[in-house]
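Input/output pair, single chain:
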Amino acid sequence: MSRALRVLCAGAAQGLVRAVQPRFVELFGAVIEGRFGAVGAMKEALMSGVPCDVLVVTDAMLRALCANGAIDAEPLSAIGQVRTGVAARAGEALPRIDSAEHLGSTLLAAPALYLPDIVKSTAGAHVAAMLDRLGLRDALAPRLAIFANGATAMAALAESGPAGALGCTQVTEILYTSGLALVGALPEPFGLATVYSAGVSKTANDPTLAASFIALLCGPGTAALRCAGGFESVDP
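Output:
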């Protein structure tokens, strides 16, 4: 029976983990058992005792979990930086979002806005705060389609969203969803760039295998996959 690596992973990195999986299986003869979702949900899963070898969440959350003893301090590796962006269905006209004014008018005109959880997900919480700052929360409330995580929200937008509907989540989740087009990253002052990192759980069955996976996920051999998936290099 193949060894299994149990990964709790933020939705923003789900596509990358899936893309790296075949290479990991080839190199180490181990399969990945991934559980994906909002970063808050992944933290809750870890703290409630869900089996975990590798945790992939925001760098800030990972370091906090390292400080409280749930994650090993080494290796603690940055995967890359991910921006929050806007999605449209493929083939539809891409609206303007290059300024706060254009962003506001575009969102107000959309018949629906697909979002991840506005409490547990990084992008969802940011978008909710952005709508408050734009003064659009009440006007858009009936048109918000909120899902457990960004990947689920984007899949729903691609499959059944009405014409002109938009989505807003991490760019990686948009790029990895078939049937969507990336309109662009959120403009200033609403831009959000989040660093995601990976660490070995204190409960890992095989810490060496876990560390090998992290080295592959963050190393030079998968740089092209990270770039294609929307991860940007983190300045040292």
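Strands lie at 3-10, 30-37, 54-58, 71-89, 113-116, 144-147, 166-170, 180-185, 193-201. Residues 82-185 form a domain with the D-Maltodextrin-Binding Protein; domain 2 fold (CATH 3.40.190.10).
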